[in-house]
Design goal:
This protein is an all-alpha fold. The chain has a single domain, classed as Alpha Horseshoe (Serine Threonine Protein Phosphatase 5, Tetratricopeptide repeat), CATH 1.25.40.920. It is 72% helix and 0% strand. The chain has 9 helices and no strands. α3 packs antiparallel against α4, α5 runs antiparallel to α6 and α6 runs antiparallel to α7. The model has no long low-confidence stretch (mean pLDDT 95).
Length: 148
């Protein structure tokens, strides 16, 4: 599962950087399918990482391109349950995708405030990722006027 997860994660990141390319967009269903498989086979891997990935995809895209805020929320909520809310990057991606796409300013503030108020020692194995999440949360809150 780790190899599939990281391959799809890298591939999805490459697609995100090339959203003007029809070839890149055409690869989205493949990364979705891989991550759906990882989520079914090993949902706990990387703190529910497959669900974070899928939530971000469904939450960031408009409906006409396969976006679905309801599915996105379900994936994020599952990832938060799996990580006991301790993997802070989940909140950041939730806010950046679902809250922004649905223009839910209250959800945006709530999610990012949780990140900023969390202890840096919350999840020792993910201390670096959680510190990055805190930095990203701060940046997103500072850009709030541009997003809403």
């Amino acid at each position: 599962m780790p190899a599939l997860f990281w391959a799809a994660f890298g591939w999805g990141s490459e697609i995100t950087l090339n959203l003007t390319s029809p070839d890149a967009i055409g690869d989205l269903p493949k990364t979705d399918a891989i991550m759906e498989y990882v989520a079914r086979q090993d949902s706990l891997y990387y703190y529910g990482g497959a669900d974070v990935f899928l939530g971000t995809l469904y939450g960031s895209r408009p409906r006409m391109l396969g976006g679905d805020p309801v599915k996105a929320r379900a994936h994020f909520e599952r990832a938060l349950r799996l990580s006991r809310g301790e993997f802070l990057m989940t909140y950041v991606y939730y806010a950046r995708s679902v809250a922004v796409q649905t223009q839910n300013e209250g959800l945006f503030d709530e999610l990012l405030t949780k990140v900023l108020q969390a202890s840096p020692d919350l999840l020792p194995a993910a201390r670096l990722a959680n510190q990055v999440a805190k930095k990203k949360a701060s940046i997103l809150l500072n850009r709030k006027q541009d997003l809403f």
